[in-house]
Amino acid sequence: MPLAREVDLGIRDHLLYELARDLSSSLELNVVLRKVMDRVITLMKASRGFIVLVDPKDGSLSVQESSGEADPEKTRLFLGSRTVIEHVVTSGQAVVSTDASLDDRFKGQQSVIMQNLRSIIAVPLMTKGKVIGAVYVDSPFRAAIFEEKDKEFLQAIADLAAIAIDNARQYEHSEFLRHLFEAHVNKQVTDYVLARSERSIRFLEGERRMVTMLNSDIAGFSSLTQRMDPQELVHFLNEYFARMIHVVLTHGGNIDKFQGDGMLVVFGAPNPMHDHAQQALKAAHEMVREIDRFNRDLVDARLSTISVGIGLDTGEVIAGHVGSRDRMEFTLIGVPVNNSAYLSKVRPARVLMSESTRAYVPTEFTVASYQPMVLKGAERPQEIYQLQTDVQEID
Predict the structure, then answer these.
(1) By C-alpha distance, which of 81, 84, 90 is closest to 54?
(2) How many domains does the chain have?
(3) Neighbour tally for 62: CB within 10 Å
(4) What distance in Å separates the CA atoms of residue 362 and residue 242, rounded to the nearest whole number?
(5) Residues 232 and 116 in one domain
(6) Would residue 193 count as lying in a domain?
(7) Residue 72 sits in which domain range?
(8) More confident residue, 362 or 67
(9) Least CB-packed of 136, 250, 266, 270 within 10 Å?
(10) E strand residue ranges, the chain
(11) Is there a single domain that holds both residue 61 and residue 141?
């Protein structure tokens, strides 16, 4: 007996309410599709079903969820009437057939003949006036399983499903954009900007922050670029930065920018850190050890080793957006930014710090006096210190 004869209006509304509640519990597309498929097969008493979605890029159709097929290799194949599914997606109109083998619209189609298709219902998945796919169910070998009222019920299910699928797709896209954004901007800045941005406010006002700046610079990098082709150079930098970035992020640093082979890192902005100097020094110490491991890999690969200068300075900076409405960047302005860059370029390369950073050196680390220097904004030479490490030079 057709489903519509068994389900009165009140029961149907209750089932649709349960489905809507169920679909609202997840924003993962595969979970949403599985829930829809399970409900469709149960409520329609069909032998098998398929959810076919339209690729938003090229318009192609692909099975995203199926039920009733025992062969795992066939779960992504559409085994129903392709004529029916294409008609539904193209026209946006639902189709019901009590016996496809006798239906003038489909009886000559190869899929109908080869699979002995009988009862078929297919309805469009529509959202915002656009067809994004279709839900298809059938029962091979059995005629008169479905009727017109069943088509209406399945369409009601599909309307709920289309909203859930669209929401899941938008969520996946927003998460993709978020991860893409975080790959270019440190997660601290991503969260900071999103938490403070409003529809009417795009610029974030400057804020004073007490920070420790860390700047790194590869010694002799210009000559290194002359010995490598572009692909080798980019690969080399990516391998090097992958190690440095991991160390910095582990210690809570925020990578402000890359400048060729240089890396500017801030500890204490945009989010305040009470131990910014200690974490910066620990990061610098671990960077030296990681550079040593990197150099040993270079030796094994018969490549030249590198030396990296690291400069640290502690003080107040201003953090905020700089640029225009067309292009803006979260950046840092202040003396410590310039001082850390200056110290990183001292040769021979080593880890150097200002007197203000020296005051925060963890007890387990050792520092030695270095020659005084005139730093940015100073009128006379200031004390400079070198972080001692147990890393030995590679011959």
Answers:
(1) 90
(2) 2
(3) 13
(4) 26
(5) no
(6) no
(7) 3-184
(8) 362
(9) 250
(10) 48-54, 61-67, 95-97, 119-127, 130-139, 207-218, 254-259, 262-267, 308-323, 328-333, 351-354, 366-373, 382-388
(11) yes
